[in-house]
Amino acid sequence: MTPWVGTNRLAGLSTLAVGLLGMAVVDYLGVAGPADPVYFVALVLAYVAVEAIPLQLPRGDVLYFGVGVATASLLIVHPANAVFAMILGLGLAATSSGSPVPARLWGKDLGRRLVALLLAATVHSQLVDSIAPGSSQLSALTPALLGGVTYAVLDLTWFSLSGSRALGETRLQSAFALFRMLGGLYLGQISVALAVAIVRPGLGSLGVVVLLTLMLLMQHSFGLLLKVRLSYTMTVTALAQLPELQDGGSRGHADRVAMLAVAVARRMGMRGSALERISLAALLHDIGNLGVEGSVGDDASSVALRGARLLESVSILADLAPVLAMQDGEAVRGAKEGDVLAANIVARCSAFADRLGAEYSESRARDALVAMSCDDPDDLVAAALDAVVESGALPGAWR
């Protein structure tokens, strides 16, 4: 058993005790009316299920997702009971199975979600009080919608501030990338939560349970999609290491080129799928060396063309072939808009990494930039590469 699982179970028991004590105090003071036991138990169990299907993000971060359950709780129980449902659910999950993260990180994660829910409950309560009696159903749902959006924004922003970042990526860029990746899922879960309020009068507890189950299935399906993407990236990374194993002297070169190429592309304003494509092309830029005896000394253009032909024969990688084929600056058929620029970025970063080698030093980095400098003031790739190197971010990432 992982050493910290027992500690987390103790933390889970403590959380359960705090939640039960808090409920007793709130009930004694009459702050919140009694919650329907079926709805309350359904929410608690939904939080337990959420803990069992976390989202594994591409950079290795793990996000425990609960915006749908949190938004639904604001609609079917008092905000105070919604908070206690989250506390008891997360505490019960940690007690029953142990969290796969150290107790300190689990506590920070619990705090993040509790703060998000408390702020969402505040927004919801303030708006509910401002709605006139007899308003339309849309008006009645607006407080929960804005409360759910508040939860989502705070949850994602807090998570992005504490999560990992790529080389040259600011916290703001990291937050936007996370919003692009998960924003649709957050809005989908909030929409299903709003449906809870619509079906509850007719279907009662059965409708609530069905829709909570739909939320969990939605999250599970999205998690599977992320795992497929992660498996694809890991497969490409493993494939990129084969030429390095054959060479024996360039271990880690593909990873360094990919890291640098993405940082340069980001500096030039590229985002989203464009960055992912450049990363994959950079990882595979030396695949043309694979299985070719004596290929290590070949010029980069020959290696790139052999690699492009190899990728063309693999359907899931054929899209990257034009980027490899155009590293010598020659246009090829089937190229997409921006492929020439992507190929230029990969080629320039590969040349820089070759000159710098596996050991980073400021003097060698400056010498490499000087050796690769050109007189064209409009060379945006060269300017972006200079800016990334001068930013001072490379030493900690170069390995």
Describe the 3D structure.
The protein has 16 helices and two strands. The chain is mainly α and 399 residues long. A two-stranded antiparallel sheet has the order 1-2. The protein is elongated.
Helices and strands, with pairings:
Elements: H1 5-29, H2 37-52, E1 55-56, E2 62-63, H3 67-76, H4 79-97, H5 103-130, H6 137-162, H7 171-203, H8 205-247, H9 253-267, H10 273-283, H11 300-312, H12 321-325, H13 339-356, H14 362-372, H15 380-390, H16 394-397
Antiparallel strand pairs: 1-2
Helix pairs in contact: 1-4, 2-3, 2-4, 2-8, 3-6, 3-7, 4-5, 5-6, 6-7, 7-8, 9-10, 9-13, 9-15, 13-14, 14-15
What keywords describe this structure?
399 residues, mainly alpha, two-stranded antiparallel sheet, 16 helices, 2 strands, 1% strand, elongated
Oligomer description: single chain
| Tally of strands | 2
Give the strand order of the largest sheet, numbering strands 1, 2, ... along the chain: 1-2
Based on secondary structure, the structural category is: mainly alpha
Q: Could you name the ranges where pLDDT drops below 50 across 5 or more consecutive residues?
A: 1-6
Tell me the Rg in angstroms: 26 Å
Could you provide a short overview of the structure?
Helices cover 72% and strands 1% of the residues. The protein is an all-alpha fold and 399 residues long. Strands 1-2 form a two-stranded antiparallel sheet.
